[in-house]
Write a structure and sequence with these properties.
This is Pirin family protein. It is a single chain. This protein is mainly beta. The chain has 2 domains: about 15-160, Jelly Rolls; about 160-280, Jelly Rolls (Sandwich), CATH 2.60.120.10. The chain is built from 2 helices and 27 strands. The protein has helices spanning about 45, 295-305; strands at about 5-10, 15, 20-30, 70-75, 80-90, 90-95, 100-105, 110, 115-120, 130-140, 155, 165-170, 175-180, 185, 185-190, 205-210, 215-220, 230-235, 240, 245, 250-255, 260-265, 270-275, 285, 290, 330, 335-339. Strands 1-21-18-23-16-13-12 form a 7-stranded antiparallel β-sheet, with no helix packed on it. Strands 2-3-10-5-8-11 form a 6-stranded antiparallel β-sheet, with no helix packed on it. Strands 4-9-6-7-26-27 form a 6-stranded antiparallel β-sheet, with no helix packed on it. A hairpin with a 2-residue loop joins strand 24 and strand 25. The longest helix is centred in the last third of the chain and has 14 residues, at about 295-305. The protein is globular, with a radius of gyration of 20 Å.
Length: about 350
């Protein structure tokens, strides 16, 4: 019987379907126009949109829940983590702990919602004289029952610090791998948030982005037996794995304890790779809350209705930082990082 590293291949939908310990991944690619004085689209660009619920991708972009600035005004979370990978554009963060930040191309924000937090994620159009393209992944990573009620926390993984592998194959073709979580060989990622499932190396959580030149070949090495491994082929044309041709916009579920050699076709290709030991607990999700039982979800909804997870300390629902503000992170304890 032929042994293969490929377990399953299926079409890439929206949001992207993931495997335990991940919950899902939302990929946003928006070719936003130039910004007005309020860092939003001009009124002519807003015509014909369902403002507040605009996910239609008209003209190549969406306002999402934003009214003046694209993005997601303040909303709650409990029971899981978000990993937001910025490939291009500007993301402004603000939360109910009083923390805030702005991160741009190459940066990653890792937020543990834990027992509950409200946050705002806005995409200000800082360029007034040219377009404002945005490309981000937001990955939801579950928390085990023992960690669902930890204190909320966020940290920045700045692009200058994120480990990168530049692999050149025997034909001189290059593959670039950003190590967001976990390790590939001796190259280890920065530390995640302290209560994350990824904080224990035994859970073998890996989050990688991969860019391959046309004709390049690269091997994703084996990891923990029993882990789940998913390769999202989201841009390019075609690849080959074990002689099997795979078209773009495919999800490849692969064996984690086998090497997986990817041979790229004749166009540059892009991938997201997620892997890790499954948590293996019941998952009950209701909107922005992820717990283990229906009763816990009901309790969460009652608590949020009563406390608003500490309320919203900002004057606006759609918090955007000044246009000329650079990359920064202001933490709840008053510590500030400037980049």
């Amino acid at each position: 019987m032929l042994m293969t590293a490929i377990k399953n291949i299926k079409p890439l939908g929206f949001p992207w379907e993931t495997q335990d310990p991940f919950l899902f991944c939302a990929y946003h690619l928006d070719n936003y126009p130039e910004g007005n004085t309020k860092m939003g689209p001009s009124s002519e660009h807003l015509r014909g949109r369902n403002i507040g619920q605009d996910f239609q991708g008209k003209d190549g972009w969406s306002m999402y829940h934003g009214s003046d600035i694209p993005g997601f005004p303040y909303h709650p979370h409990r029971g899981f983590e978000t990993i937001t990978i910025n490939k291009q554009g500007v993301v402004d963060h603000s939360d109910s702990l009083g923390a805030a930040g702005r991160f741009m191309e190459g940066d990653v924000q890792w937020m543990t919602a834990g027992r509950g937090v409200q946050h705002s994620e806005m995409f200000p159009l800082v360029n007034e004289d040219k377009g404002n393209p945005l490309e981000i992944f937001q990955i939801w990573l579950n928390l085990p029952k023992a960690s669902k009620m930890v204190e909320a926390h966020f940290k920045m993984l700045w692009r200058e610090d994120i480990p990168v592998i530049n692999h050149v194959d025997e034909n001189g073709k290059k593959s670039t791998i950003d190590i967001i979580a976990g390790n590939i060989g001796d190259v280890e990622a920065l530390d995640p948030t302290p209560n994350s499932w990824a904080s224990n190396p035994e859970n073998a959580v890996g989050v990688f982005t991969l860019k391959m030149e046309a004709g390049a070949e690269w091997t994703l090495p084996a990891t923990l037996a029993g882990a789940n491994r998913t390769i999202f082929f989201y841009r390019g044309k075609n690849i080959q794995i074990e002689g099997r041709s795979i078209q773009v916009k495919s999800i490849i579920e692969a064996k984690a304890d086998s090497d997986v050699t990817i041979k790229n076709g004749d166009e540059e290709s892009f991938f997201l790779i997620l892997e890790g030991k499954p948590i293996g607990e019941p998952v009950v999700q209701h909107g922005p809350f992820v717990m283990n039982t229906v009763e816990e979800i009901q309790q969460t909804m009652r608590e949020y209705g009563r406390t608003q997870f500490g309320g919203w300390p900002w004057n606006e629902r759609e918090v955007a930082h000044p246009r000329d503000k650079g990359r920064f992170a202001l933490h709840a304890d008053g510590r500030e990082e400037l980049k």
